[in-house]
Specification:
Length: about 325
């Protein structure tokens, strides 16, 4: 019996700084309604989907940023999303800023069953940007200021999605650029990687020139390579458009285990893209080219976990 599920990337357009969570949730419920009409069984919303991408704003007192965080999930503002999932029988991925009862802060993503159970939670490991205000930057990117490094690893769970068991895994935005994240999921036999992103469409570092077209190319390259090299489907969902004057690119995609793009968003606004995923198509890659048990040589990979930064190589000396 083939295991085929219909998934959607529910891309969001901009969420302005003053936009209340209820407005963003209302937009997400409308996307979920459209997903239901198309027979979708799993919806992937973006990273930090409830608010503007607030790490672009500097708060001298970190506590001033706490209002961007959720202390309960669901809350009164997010309950309509859980209600819609239950009404439509749809599972969903949601990215949001999590503040724990102990006062820790995470860039978090959850996979929620139609009944509203959190089947999987992930906290972002690769936090890009910087922790202190950087006057050289056109726009701040203060994820290292506002978030702790994720403490849940890269978990995978085998859960019923659309009536079939699926090995589901999560990552968030910058994680997609790190092959280590994909491989840790791949080593747990992941079949469907869900990730949201908020990525500026131009280089904000103020260091060197990066042609704008490379932004989307690098995002797609990362997701397509990660999916192919770990024989998994991937859904990458953008928050897009101009938020507080800062442009984020869209181009959400759904990718198959051969690294092919099955669907791509063409706007920078709220947009639903869908694809049917035959999960047994993961088998070819993981039993041939990427049969990890037959081909990987961990004894040669020591540097990957033994080092943080790169080291200089030894100089070659002519004999
Ligand atoms: N955003 C960006 C991302 O990794 C970034 C940050 C952009 C890093 C471009 C490097 C190059 O897509 C988040 N939120 O991680």
């Amino acid at each position: 019996m083939p295991r085929i599920i219909t998934v959607a990337a529910a891309q969001l357009g901009p969420i302005q700084r003053a936009e209340p969570r209820a407005a963003a949730v209302g937009r997400m419920v409308r996307l979920m309604e459209r997903a239901h009409a198309r027979g979708v069984q799993v919806v992937v919303f973006p990273e930090l989907a409830l608010t503007t991408f607030f790490p672009r704003h500097y708060h001298a007192d970190r506590a001033e940023a706490d209002h961007w965080f959720e202390t309960a999930m669901p809350s009164n503002e997010t309950a309509p999303l859980f209600d819609a999932a239950r009404r439509f029988g749809i599972a969903f991925h949601l990215g949001y800023a999590e503040r724990t009862p102990e006062g820790r802060h995470f860039n978090t993503a959850i996979l929620v069953s139609p009944a509203g159970e959190v089947m999987l939670k992930y906290r972002k490991v690769h936090l890009p940007g910087h922790a202190e205000h950087d006057p050289a930057r056109q726009v701040q990117h203060l994820e290292k200021r506002y978030f702790d490094v994720g403490d849940l690893g890269f978990p995978v769970v085998r859960a019923p999605l659309g009536g079939v068991p699926v090995n589901a895994g999560l990552m968030i935005c910058n994680d997609r650029r790190w092959p280590e994240a994909w491989r840790v999921l791949g080593l747990q036999s992941v079949e469907l990687v869900m990730l949201g992103y908020n990525t500026p469409s131009t280089n904000q570092d103020g260091q060197g020139f990066e042609a704008p077209h490379l932004r989307v190319f690098h995002s797609h390259l990362s997701v397509q390579a990660g999916a192919y090299q770990n024989a998994t489907y991937a859904v990458a969902t953008a928050k897009a458009g101009v938020e507080d004057g800062c442009e984020l690119f869209g181009h959400s995609i759904i990718v198959n285990p051969q690294g092919e793009i099955l669907a791509q968003a063409t706007t920078w606004d709220d947009e639903l893209i869908t694809a049917d995923c035959d999960l047994d198509r993961c088998t070819l890659g993981r039993t041939t080219i990427f049969a990890f048990d037959r081909h990987r040589r961990p004894e040669a990979y020591g540097r990957i976990t033994g080092q943080v930064g790169a080291v200089a190589p030894p100089e070659w000396i002519a004999p």
